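worker-03 picked up job from queue 'complexes'. Input manifest follows; three sequence lines, order preserved.
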Amino acid sequence: MTTYGEHKNFFAIPEDADDFEPGKGDFVVQVRDEKGTYWLSKPVFADQEITAEDLQLSK
Amino acid sequence: MSVVESQLHIEMGTKKPCRNCKWEIADPTNPNQGQCTVNRTKAGSVWKRWVRDVHNMTCTHYEEGELSFRDHV
Amino acid sequence: MVTTAEAIDYKGKKVEFPLEYAAENEIPDEELHEHLAKPSTERTKRLKARCRWKHASAGEFVEKGVCAGIERMRLLTEAHKASEGKPEVMRRALGLANILNKCTVVLQDDEFIIGYHAEDPNMFPLYPELAYMAVADYLITDYAPQPVEEAREIMDYWVPYSMQSKCEHYFDPEDLQRMYQVSTMEAPGFATGYNSIVPPYETVLEDGLLKRIELAEANIQMAKDKMAEMPWDATKGLAWLDKIDNWEAMILVDKAVIAWARRHARLCKIVAENFETDPKRKEELLEIADINQRVPAEPCKGLKDAFQAKWYTYLLCHAIDRYASGMAHKEDTLLWPYYQNSVIDKSFQPMTHADVVEMVEMERLKVSEHGAGKSRAYREIFPGSNDLFIISLGGTLPDGSDACNDMTDAILEATRNIRTTEPSLMFRYSKKGRSKTKELVFGCIRDGLGYPSIKHDEIGVQQMKEYGKFSTEGKGATDEEAHNWVNVLCMSPGIHGRRKTQKTRSEGGGSIFPAKIMEVTLNDGYDWSYADMQLGPKTGNAEDFNTFEKLWEAFKVQYQYAASLVIRCKDTLRYFEGKFLQMPFVSSIDDGCMELGRDACELSEQPNGWHNPITTIVAANSLVAIKKLIYDEKKYTMKQLMDALKANWDGFEEMRKDFKNAPKWGNDDEYADAIIKDFYEDIIGGEMRKITNYSGGPVLPVGQAVGLYMEIGSRTGPTPDGRYGGEAADDGGISPYMGTDTKGPTAVLRSVSRVQKNQKANLLNQRLSLPIMRSQHGFNVWHAYMDTWHDLNIDHVQFNVVSTAEMKAAQKEPEKHQDLIVRVAGFSARFVDIPTYGQNTIIARNEQEFGAEDYEFIDADL
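worker-03 finished. Artifact:
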């Protein structure tokens, strides 16, 4: 079991950000498909268990 | 034009419903209804017929499969 | 080599037509358009090569991998469940805020303008709060949102709350059944979710959202102070309650929008600092991060700011808060102050004109991969394109001077370079417009993009003034504001600016189809050829019409039934939008809503009552043929005609020839034109004008055909104009039927100019000779044609300049013709993404050759 907070792609939200909450961060992944590459970021909490889908995406 | 001899008709519980027929595409608004595209004019135009109930209507031109978008309207 | 036009004798001299670009002598006709794209930089070349096109055709997406996302519907539903008991406008605000706060944000490689409206750039969102049938349709497709069971649960949850359920209750189910099949009438917006909007971009760019929040806070304080006044007066004081709710909702969503934009800034920074290895891109990402931290919160200072703030506003208004088609704004006027800052003064985000061209190319590619979660009907009717994105340019400023500027030129240059099907452009043609810009307009047209379409600047201004008189708020467009108009969708003009814009679809849509109405008029209101059911009132059988006037009157009744019903549907939807589908973000950026504390869906300051009759010419040509052959010459009886139609002319070939050869619209034929002029002015416009809509003004026809001319054609049996059952109908509001305008381009203009009363927004499609347009005389001929068109007081015209040889080659080898673009109706499409049925309608259009008499009529300088 891995949490988002333990993952290298988790970035804690700075305290001066509009959406700051303790433990909240951006989970950032890069996706490649036949058209090209792109980055996705979604808000998560550090103690939240990482989903299998996100784990796969972050590889 | 080549008129289809056997017209669309209701056959409750048919195993060959318009929904699964390659000549049918969904109604523009209500997905329980549809459009039959089997009729073609001499000039190649598609002369559609409305399908009131895609789950329970059928005809002898039933064919499974999918028509390319190029053969629709 | 590209075919050249034959020399002619004109004004006593022989005129030859060598190609403008000699290199085209080496290019075969069949592949010309594959040589015309010239992305201005390596970056835009790459971006075009990897563009995630989302073209639909025959109701399906053409590219594999495109699918509906579930994130928006999931987050909206979560917020709706959690906000029960709160004021409805606040529930809407909380819904949008929940989406923005929790959605996935997207950053693609190579992009400069960033932001997307779904959780993946291959996806698009759905809108269960609008039409449950539209969502149900997605669930049976290969591009259903995943997991599909969750999507179904969400759809089921929304059924009772949806606009569709709320509105359907007030209509006869039989009427709805008639509308939903889209043959005499288009399905109402509450059953499709279709919508359009003109966002007040100006306030976002000029004020920034922090300023809008301050305004709302000040208004709330003012309201509370007023309510505290003594003695209490409930007749005035209670009105503040709704206003306070509206202002609070505006504040909530504007804060959420700022935070959402800044999440994008943070993503750029994270990628730059942790992942990006290219130092140049790293630097650029940090610059993008800076921009997205500042806008749309703060006012824009340079052109990069403006493009980004505009894009966020676009995403919110057209896709995230609610689906809305169109891209209605006056881009050159809107961006000109920022162009001045960045290019001329170089005071902020300094750049060159060439840099601006690249920015426009990048924006056009962003639009090209924008996905719309529209209903099947709308996936069917813009074949070969994505959605209706139409930007307006040119025209005149409020002081009456020429509005063209270097930003106009940059947009036109980029458009011609990058060659995309969208966004389309509309150019407001005024004789004051500078020649330099008109040459660029012509360059796009000559290269076969099909746009800019051209609208008459002065007619548009007059229309805004006329509609302004009917404002129920007493706040219609002033004489100066009347110059601020854009196309809302393909054809209909509406105000742009800080207030008085159209916020929801009170124009277009809910079309009515005279071709099919003509068919049922001949059959006592019954449809024998498509639905096999009664489609309108019982007005008698054709055999019983012993005079032409009786047929005319029966048609009028059928038409009024359809027009009144569809507009009643639109206004009923508008009523419920104001109560349950408020748009607090749009309200917050509109000066009127902000000042008055009213919601954008509910407030209507400038009426806009356009409505679509489409396929008018099939009906009109049918009336001409009937009058001539049955009532005037008595060559046939109505009984014989009805027998022939029921047989689809089979066994009646000679008779069909007579009806086919009867006078047709677009040939400057006095007999046909007299009947058709009356048809447009007395019925199409006259009957519609009797109707008053939500915004208090009369309803007027705007014939913007889109691909409905194909759909309606395929649902309409044979008609008395000699058309076979299933054949396409006419492709524009006032365009001649394909292939029947045989007397030259100026004969078409003379016919069309005869219709002047009760309408001035009818689409005119013309296909011009490619060899003439690509010759050294091309611009002069087109310019003289346009000035003549202007003098004839015609509202609109648009052109295809593409050879039959190339279109036929593309039908044979579609993969080799990805850059072949054609004008279908109010939109341009990738030719190879259109079904063969539709492709054939473009090929069948008459390619207008100019003869000496045409050149004389337009006084061309050759």
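worker-03 released lock.
Helices of chain A lie at 52-57.
The longest helix of chain A spans residues 52-57.
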